[in-house]
Write a structure and sequence with these properties.
Length: about 400
Amino acid sequence: MSSTPRPYSTGSGLYNADFGASSIVSDELLQRVRSRAAGYDESNSFFVDDLAELQAAGYLRMFAPTSLGGLGFGLERVAREQVRLATAAPATALAINMHLVWTGVAKTLADRGDDSLFWVLREAAEGQIFAFGNSEAGNDLVLFGSRTRAEPQPGGAYRYFGRKIFTSLSPAWTRLGIFGLDDTDKAAPLLVHGFITRDTAGYEILDDWNTLGMRATQSATTVLDGAEVPADRVFRKLPAGPSADPLIFGIFANFEILLAAVYTGLAERALELAVDAAKRRTSMKNDGRPYSDDPDIRWKVAEAAIAQDGIYPQLEALSRDVDALVDHGALWFPRLVGLKVRATENARLVVDQALRVSGGSSLSSSSELGRLYRDVVAGLFHPSDGESAHSTVANAWLGPPS
């Protein structure tokens, strides 16, 4: 791990160098996670050892209440842990995000008096691994529409037919959250949410994950061919289209904030690598002085640091507001998508500046910074993308177009 101090503080010290002392991920565990990241990336393999060690540390039980054997953390603390983990292995952190999103949703709902997913917290505390199976190719309605068909069965069960993409944790999940469209009543179609288990019949995980970046997530395509969700695991039926249901807020809040945390951690590590490179590299034309004395290099590092420093307060404030049940009303969604876009775009800027500071060695296949450059590209594709986010914010400020 870099010895470069991280001088960032948002007033409460959440993201300063002292957090490692209180994190559930010890410095030694973090270093082991970092040491494996390149191998997972090179072999395009799942982070098996990371997952085992993080499970043993209680990482997947963070949102579960202490009464169930969990750690009782809120979103603010979990986001902080994800920033730290992502400095070592962004792909590991991103995949675990999908489990944390569902457990975070369950806690967000429970905190607001809705126990419909409390069983998720109980089963997470027992060791079950949850994954997010909602993404679909070409579905720009995201949670407000689906290309997957949900067919009602006797007794309240549903069978699902469709293709889900970017299903992170594919090799390891034991519970997969999915949704689809029940258009039995053409005048009032429903979006039906539920969970299948690993031993459910009627689904196939394709071996199709071979990507530019975030390779260790193993976010394979899942084909649903009649997979049945029993009635007691169908937890929401919502009218197709935009919805004010607390589930939608819970998913957006946890998904966007935890995504932002991962890319914030990625950028933090890139900045550390840039600082280390500037101090390590020397200039022949300047009598062997370190590049850290070069005004152009100093400007690039400063630009990256200024940009990075602005992300922490927003990440902290929004995650704390979720925990504190703050009601931002219609402004919640613009603020959430704004954080996601700002964090992912900021990470790209920081990585780009770090590459410029570090020089051509970062092109090597063994370069950690080169891997971060590939990983950061994935931030473009997570919901909400730039177009959707700008539409959300424009509607908040200007109203819908006439």
